[in-house]
Structure formats: structure tokens, C-alpha cells
Fold this sequence. Notes:
The chain has a domain at 7-203: Cellobiose dehydrogenase, cytochrome domain (Immunoglobulin-like, Sandwich). By secondary structure, the chain is an alpha+beta fold. It is 15% helix and 23% strand. The strands form six sheets. Strands 1, 2, 3, 4, 9, 10 and 11 form a seven-stranded antiparallel sheet that branches. Strands 14, 15, 20, 21, 22, 23 and 31 form a seven-stranded mixed sheet that branches. Helix 2 (244-255) runs parallel beside helix 12 and helix 3 (353-362) crosses helix 12 (753-769). One 2-acetamido-2-deoxy-beta-D-glucopyranose is lined by residues 257, 259, 435-437.
Amino acid sequence: MLRRSLLALLPLIGVAFSQSASQFTDPVTGFQFTGLTDPVHDVTYGFVFPPLVTSGNQSTEFIGEVVAPIEAQWIGIALGGEMIGDLLLVAWPNGNEIVSSTRWATDYIQPIAYTGQATLTTLSETKVNSTHWQWVFRCQGCTEWNNGEGIDVTSEGVLAWAFSNVAVDDPSDAESTFSEHTDFGFFGIDYSSAHSSNYQNYLAGNAGNPTTTSSTPTSTSSSTSTGPTASATPYDYIVVGAGPGGIISADRLSQAGKKVLLLERGGPSTQETGGTYVAPWAEGSGLTKFDIPGLFESLFTDPDDFWWCKDVTVFAGCLVGGGTSVNGALYWYPNTQDFSSSVGWPSSWENHTPYTSMVQARLPSTDHPSTDGERYLEQTFGVMSQLLSGQGYSNITINDNPNYKDHVYGYSSFDFLNGKRAGPVATYLQTALARPNFTFKQNVMVSNVVRNGSQILGVQTNDTTLGPNGFIPLTTNGRVVLSGGAFGTSRILFQSGIGPTDMLQIVQGSSTAAAALPPQDQWIDLPVGYNAQDNPSINLVFTHPSVDAYENWADVWSDPRPADAAQYLENQSGVFASASPRVNFWRAYSGSDGFTRYAQGTVRPGASLPLNTSLSYNSSQLFTITVYLSTGIQSRGRVGIDAALRGTVLTAPWLVNADDKTVILQALNDVISNMDSVPGLTLVVPDNTLTMEEYVNEYDPSTMNSNHWVSTTTIGSSAQNAVVDENAKVFNTNNLFVVDAGIIPHLPTGNPQGTLMSAAEHAVANILALAGGP
Ligand SMILES: Cc1cc2nc3c(=O)[nH]c(=O)nc-3n(C[C@H](O)[C@H](O)[C@H](O)COP(=O)(O)OP(=O)(O)OC[C@H]3O[C@@H](n4cnc5c(N)ncnc54)[C@H](O)[C@@H]3O)c2cc1C
Ligand SMILES: *[C@@H]1O[C@H](CO)[C@@H](O)[C@H](O)[C@H]1NC(C)=O
Ligand SMILES: *[C@@H]1O[C@H](CO)[C@@H](O)[C@H](O)[C@H]1NC(C)=O
Ligand SMILES: *[C@@H]1O[C@H](CO)[C@@H](O)[C@H](O)[C@H]1NC(C)=O
Ligand SMILES: *[C@@H]1O[C@H](CO)[C@@H](O)[C@H](O)[C@H]1NC(C)=O
Ligand SMILES: *[C@@H]1O[C@H](CO)[C@@H](O)[C@H](O)[C@H]1NC(C)=O
Ligand SMILES: *[C@@H]1O[C@H](CO)[C@@H](O)[C@H](O)[C@H]1NC(C)=O
Ligand SMILES: *[C@@H]1O[C@H](CO)[C@@H](O)[C@H](O)[C@H]1NC(C)=O
Ligand SMILES: *[C@@H]1O[C@H](CO)[C@@H](O)[C@H](O)[C@H]1NC(C)=O
Ligand SMILES: *[C@@H]1O[C@H](CO)[C@@H](O)[C@H](O)[C@H]1NC(C)=O
């Protein structure tokens, strides 16, 4: 955001350079750079590139340094020599650390975060002392930018620097705003002579003599290139991903006496897991954003959103608990139809009752999460009850009647316990952690499984303390269970040479991942990423004079209603003991194509502002009905990876089937059909300028996303139509399994986590029963 003045580096067309870079050796690190020291501010800029290669893992990176006197409050580098349309690097000291970021500008205004693929890693030579700060960094993916331009590392170029003696607005925040530089300049550089055969040594922290040890690191940043190497412990089962699929799998496998390693790329979530992200008003209680149900809506408005996977282009939780630590926690026990062979389950899966019972025993649902048993902020229930009873709906306790999903409504049901987020983290993970056979490692990223044809040998991680070069082996007959979620597991499979050829070719073209890809004659062609489903969801926004919109949840993190905050802190009761939904309802529709489809409604006080409406409204009285289409839906899409290896939607799955669209339109019209019978009820979105049909037609498909991805590694009968068999084993492998939402062949009737947990219980029981394992 532009806070103060314009930043104005001039474009450089036709400028002659009085300064140009030359080679020098940094006196402290011994690294040889090409660059210069600006004589006015006494700031040194240096660059060194890997040996010249035009493709492969290091073709787009370099190591750079900035050595600046302490008066320099921030320093910027423009890699194309001008401010607009080239990659900008900005850094400043914050205490003993250097805070840095990649930026981009499309005008002479405050540059914003660069959204392309560039990774800055602060190297261990970085330091701050009483007179200077020295930032030594690796910049990967930095010579090619997402506008198609870049640095030609074989020829000459221009660099620009920016200097400021005015501190940035929030030195602790890498994305901080700042005012215009107080000085700037340019210099020419011959990149063709800036390549060094010592580059790998530099990355490893030594100045060029492989036998010498690196200078003592004083930086607080973590470097990926160093770190002790340990001899690896083999495991019977390595489970990748601590979401619901992975946690339930790891718990049951360790309970059966197997030696189990659970690897999670993210870090702590709830207080119980060591999480520390606590709202200002809850300090002292230790209850985190992830514990307190009433903070759910604040997950989507908080700029410090470390919990989302940054390499997946839709919402996905990258922390202990995966989606279940950041989701709305709506929790429905599955019904008969959710596991029917008519929606793609093998017939041996139709009797889900034993597995669902196991889940219920470990994690019962509640529709009154406040510890005092009372319900709070329930005005929408009264309004919906008038509206829906007029449409022939019955008021039921939903999880007492899982099979009853036509013309029913009731209180929203959650996987909260004791007024706090619970889910698999508070239950299954805790029993696993108590077992000596169970090992849990966080902040460990698995890139791929390592295999010899169909035999998986272990997993490749980024943590060299767990095994030589980060490789962790299996015991004889050992097995790997992938539970990385619909996007995470798909990417691991692609990077392991398993999936459609087009995705594997992307890996082959990746500078970071190609080396680990098995040779093409070992590729396993499976429809990974195909068949993807997610509930299309469309919001209707209303006002009613009885409704308390709760400030549209905008104040819950920093400025809650004091009495509600106090009540929650003292008793884990009140408004904060629940997430935002209050009412759910379902109705069945028969489509002209013969499929019965279910529409689900989720009702919450408040709405996402600003509203797109021409009507005036009272924002204190807003509520939202989200209408989803679930079981019976025929639309499917495809997920995969982009060139930067980000998990992404390749073909949108929302309302691509014409009957799906007809049914959701019908459901939306039905919801409002008797509005006039509820005094004071006013529809605000869509407004009176749009018919419901126009509203649906104009609805941005990407905002129909419900984050309920299933079927991307679907269970099924053959490698032609599915990725895993009825034992959750990946086709054409001996010992690789998937247990996560991806194996579910069709969207369940309600939000998916209940069905997923039951499916995980069933899958892990099958895996344990399958001969040939440890
Ligand atoms: C914002 C949001 C709201 C939702 N609301 C609801 C709701 O109210 N009710 C409901 O039923 N469902 C809801 N869902 C969906 C539900 O949370 C998911 O269906 C469920 O979490 C999927 O579980 P999973 O085990 O398949 O994967 P995930 O929960 O995605 O877990 C995967 C885990 O694997 C880790 N991982 C991934 N790749 C790697 C790797 N390479 N190496 C190591 N670790 C890795 C991730 O960090 C993550 O912890 C919501 C989802 C989101 C995102
Ligand atoms: C990248 O390339 C360098 C130089 O060829 C090599 O030493 C290094 O091991 C490679 N890294 C990976 C991860 O393949
Ligand atoms: C501080 O660091 C700079 C840059 O590395 C170095 O030149 C200088 O000698 C150091 N000063 C002190 C007092 O250590
Ligand atoms: C698992 O733990 C149990 C005791 O909890 C022990 O008897 C068993 O030998 C262990 N198995 C493995 C494979 O370590
Ligand atoms: C709906 O059912 C619940 C539980 O059975 C009951 O407490 C509530 O009063 C009912 N509400 C209406 C409006 O029927
Ligand atoms: C491995 O990756 C995870 C997730 O990105 C990260 O948090 C962790 O710091 C990485 N570990 C190392 C040693 O680089
Ligand atoms: C790979 O498997 C084949 C048999 O399938 C075996 O002959 C070979 O030794 C294995 N290679 C390794 C490195 O394990
Ligand atoms: C907590 O619960 C107790 C017992 O019901 C009650 O007396 C007290 O007022 C509650 N505290 C708050 C802050 O609501
Ligand atoms: C607002 O709604 C109109 C239709 O009335 C639509 O064309 C427009 O794209 C919407 N704007 C936004 C920002 O969603
Ligand atoms: C808006 O709604 C609030 C809460 O119901 C009410 O107190 C207020 O008077 C309303 N404002 C107007 C302008 O009607």
C-alpha cells in the first residue's frame, strides 16, 4: 500500500554509466564478488553466479551481498536497473537479524510483494554489528521474472540501488511499507565474468577451499545448505502430512506396534502442540488462534497468515492438523450414501459403520460447543426456522440422523471439545505421541518418495539431521503413507514420477526437482489430479432486525466485545466457544439426468464486506446463507502443479455440468421462495438489479471454492480410472499408500472431514491387514 510519497527511479533507457562493477574479495567472508562500493554512502553491493549453465537446478540463481553502515535504514536493489517491471530486493536490519523481501512495482509507487517464483535465503555469513550490517543471501529463481524478462547472465547489464536513512514502518515485517528512498544510483555489470567455480563452496559456507571450515555464523536465519548429517533410522511406516488422514493413520499404525514416523512440513498450531499465536486479549491463557473457535473468521483477514501453504494457490493448511486446524470445524457423521458404491466406493467399503463408530468414540461431535451447554448468538436460528419450516423442513439434531438429509435443518455441529478446537490433533495425535514407537517431526518437507521401480525405499526430505542428505529409509517391507492433502499428495506423487506425463514433464523441467525424478522408463502413469471435486458454493446475504452481525467478525482478534472475551477466558463458554456457523440445512433434488443431488445450506451471522449491492443496508444486522451442492453433483475438474511447482487448479470443477447449475439455481430460488412470510427479512445480495439466474451466471467461479477437495487420488478398481486400490495402495507400486481426502471418490453430503476420518480408519485397517508389510 502506498503510504507516503512516490518512489521514483527513472527508467534507464540510454543512460551512460559513470560507475561499473569490478571483482573484489569480501574481507570478512573471503567470498569473491563482482560489484562495487558506492563512495557516497559507503555501501557495498556484490554478486556471484554459479558456473554458467543455461538450464538445470542453478541456472536462475545467484549469491549476493550488501554491506552497509548502520545509518542505512534500508537498501534496495533493482535487478533490471529500473524500478518498474524488474525484480526488486529490499533489506534492512531488525535487531540482530536482516529482514528481506522480493518486491515488484508496476508504477513509481510503493513496491508490493513479488508474486513470482523467487526465494531469498539469508546465508550464515549475515550479521549486524555496532557499525555495519552485512547481508549475504542466496536468490533462487531470481534471474527470470514473471513478466517474461530477466537478467542475461552471459552478458552485460545494469543494476540500480536505492538507499534510505529513514526506517521502514515496521522493521519486523518483511512486507513492511516504507517511504521513498533518500538516494539512488546505477552501475553497469558484466555478468559473463561474475560466475564462480567456488559457488557450491560459498553455499556450503566456505570461501573456496573445501577443506577449511566456514566462518562462525552469527545470523539468526536458517540456512538450508548447512546442518549436521545423521545416520538415518529406518521406519516401518513413514506417514507424510499431519492432517486428519495422516494423524489417524499414524495413530492406528503405532497402536498396532509398528515403528512409525509422522512428518509434517508445518509447525505448531494449538497450544497443546506448542503453538504460540495468541490474540492480544488472550495472552496469559496461552490459547491460540487455532484453539479459540470464535477466531475462525479472523484466519482470513490476518496479514500474518503463516498457516496457509504458500505454494498452493487455494486455501490449504500447512501446520499441525492441516485443514482441521484452520477449518470451520463443521463436522457431520457420514451417511450410507457417502460410502455407496453408486458414488464410486468399492463395495467392500459400503459398510462404513464400524469405522464411523471408531471416529465417534474418539471424537464426538457437538452442536452446543460452549462449556455451559448454552447456545449464543442464535438469532439466525429463529429466522431460518421461520423461513425453512415454511418450506416443509423439519428441525432435527443432525448427527443423530445422518441418513436424513432432505428437508432438514438443525444446529451446526462441530468437532470442538471443552469449548476449544479439538479434531484429530486433540485426540488421535495425543495417543500416538504417548507411544515409544511413534516419532513426530515438524517443519520437515517431503519432496518425493525414493523408489526402485515399484518398490519404495524411503522418503526424501529437506532435513539433513534425519538422514544423509535428508533421505529417510524404510525397514525391510516398510511402507509409505502419503497424507499431504489433495494438493500436497499430488505434488509428492508427481515429484516421484507418478502421475500424468504432462505433470511429470513439469517436474523434469524444474531446476529444483528434476534431479530426483526417476528415469522416464520408471514413470508410473496414473490419473493423479483428475476427477477433482469441490462443492460449488454461492452466498446469499440478508438482513433481519433480530440478527446480531457481531461486527461481521472484524473485531474478534484485536477488539472483542469485552464481556464475551472475559467469559471465554474464564469458562471457555459464550460466543467464542463456537465458529461462525449457526444453522445447517439440506434438501434433495432430482435432476433431469436421473441423479439426485443434495443442496446444503450453512448460515452464519455477519457477511464478508464490502458487499456488492446497490441496496443500502444495516451492517449490524447482516447474515449469510452459503448454499453448496454436494452428493450427486457431476462436475469434476483437475488439479496439478504449475511451472513453479505450486499446487494449483488446472481445470475448475465448479458447475461445469449443466444439470448441476440448474439444481443450484433451483435451490437458491427455493431458499428465498417464501421470504415475504418472514417479517423484516431483506435480501441484500443479490440486489434487485439481478435475477437469481444472472447472479449465478455472473458469479466468479473461483469464489465458489469451498476448500473441500476430494477425489484427486481417487480409490477405484483400476489404474485407468483411479490412483489407489481398495487397500488405498497406489496402483503399480508395492508399498505406497494414500490416506487423505484425495481418495474419496465423490463429494459427501456434508462438509467432508467426518467422511474423511471414517475413510482413514477404514484405509489404515486395510493397510494393516494387507499381507507383505512390516
Ligand atoms: C479454510 C478451510 C475451511 C474448511 N472448513 C471445513 C469444515 O468446516 N468442515 C469440514 O468438514 N471440512 C472443512 N474443510 C476441509 C477439511 O479441512 C479438509 O477436507 C481436510 O483437512 C483434508 O484432510 P487431509 O488429511 O486430506 O489433508 P490436509 O488437512 O490438507 O493435511 C495435509 C497435511 O500434510 C502436510 N503436508 C502436505 N504436503 C507435505 C509434504 N510434502 N511434506 C510434509 N508435509 C506435507 C500439510 O502441511 C498438512 O498439515 C475446510 C478446509 C479449509 C482449507
Ligand atoms: C545442483 O547442481 C550443482 C552443480 O551441478 C550440484 O553440485 C548440486 O548437487 C545440484 N543440486 C541438486 C539438488 O541437484
Ligand atoms: C562490522 O562488520 C563490518 C562488515 O562485516 C566489518 O567491516 C567491521 O569491521 C565490523 N565492525 C566491528 C566493530 O566488528
Ligand atoms: C512398539 O512398542 C511396543 C511397546 O509399546 C514394543 O513392545 C514393540 O517392540 C515396539 N515395536 C517396535 C517395532 O519398535
Ligand atoms: C429445534 O430443535 C431443538 C432440539 O431438538 C430444540 O431445542 C429447538 O427448540 C427447536 N427449535 C425450533 C424452532 O423448533
Ligand atoms: C524444510 O521445509 C520446511 C517447510 O517449508 C521449513 O519450515 C523448514 O525450515 C525446512 N528445513 C530446512 C532444514 O530447510
Ligand atoms: C532394483 O530392483 C531390482 C529388481 O527389481 C534389483 O535387481 C536391483 O538390485 C534394485 N536396485 C536397487 C538399487 O535396489
Ligand atoms: C464462569 O462461570 C461461572 C459458573 O457458571 C460463573 O459464575 C461466572 O460468572 C463465569 N464467568 C464469566 C466471566 O462469565
Ligand atoms: C458486482 O456485481 C455485478 C453484477 O451486478 C458484477 O458484474 C460485478 O463483477 C460485481 N463486482 C465484484 C467486484 O464482484
Ligand atoms: C442498525 O442495526 C442496529 C442493531 O440492530 C440498530 O441498533 C441500529 O439502530 C440500526 N441502525 C439503523 C440506522 O437502522
